[in-house]
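Listing 4. Sequential folding, example run.
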Amino acid sequence: MSANGRGENAHPRWPGIDIAGSLVLPVPRDAFPDVIAPVMAHGLELLPKPEFHLTLLNRRLAARAQRTPAPGGHAIDHLRVAFDALDWRWRATGERWLLRERRDGRVRHSVIALVTLPALDAFRSRAAEVLGIEVAPAPAHVTLYTAGAPRGIGIDSHAAFARLQLAPIALQPRAPA
């Protein structure tokens, strides 16, 4: 992968389920070289995420894939085959959005960068087939900054994205204290 919002590795290694239970494609920090310090947006101080990734399946779907039987093993085994067959190159669109979510009495914010990643829809479609459930298409994105939720805000569909949008954003570095 290279700097400036591009993933050039068409066939990365299967990432497996991460420590939080999601299936994510790691994104190197240098893919977004401008994300180095806290920023201010809409009166909020947003902190850079310590790691970047593209979420392929959230915790709920990844757990279901691990426990759902499928011919020759479990659904997760079929998803690994699908992953290996797809082209995972991506490119940032240049669009960044400030998101807001109220959950469990707390307000959380994230700034995401939208990316083009055609493999994501194909992968989620295959997940729907092997799991036998609806898996909605979701916007491909990388969470860059957060406030109130260090991991970010889950976006599992385009409808969720529309509901969480606060504003398109151009970020300014935080002024020194």
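-- end of first protein; second protein begins --
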Amino acid sequence: MSKKEIGRHYVNAITKLVIYIVVYVVVAAIVHYVISTLLPMFGIKVSPYEGYVNVLLALAFGYLIVSAFADVIYWSMRFRYDHPTARAMRNVFLLIGIGALVAGIAGAIGGGVASVAVVSRVSDLIPSLSEVVNKVAVNLEAGNHMMLLGDLSSDKTLYFGRNLRGII
């Protein structure tokens, strides 16, 4: 894929992210107006349920926004790295974003204690994700160096810093 195509996808991803944010703000404002002003004019009182409606909106649009942000990360990484590396980073940001979304929703519904509990579980997940990403990055980097050296049948000496070397 050429840099021009990657740039076009990157701009499209940013545009999609901005559109999702704007649509969420507009829809939330319309829902608030309908629940707090329009429906009471007809004698329908649903204002006690406005929080639940806002949580559903936050879940729906929150996932779209997190997914669009992860796409922005993916296309920005594609400028310098290949698909597997960019996809790994997209997945990491997607999982972190979904964790933050769930923690925010838990805080809105259950209060601060529920939010702290969710954040602690998500923070337990993040170090294992970073280990996986680091292992993938190291393996990709080692694979790139092995490809530069040529076939594995010849006896070549690899130098890893000053004192480390290996023969392949």
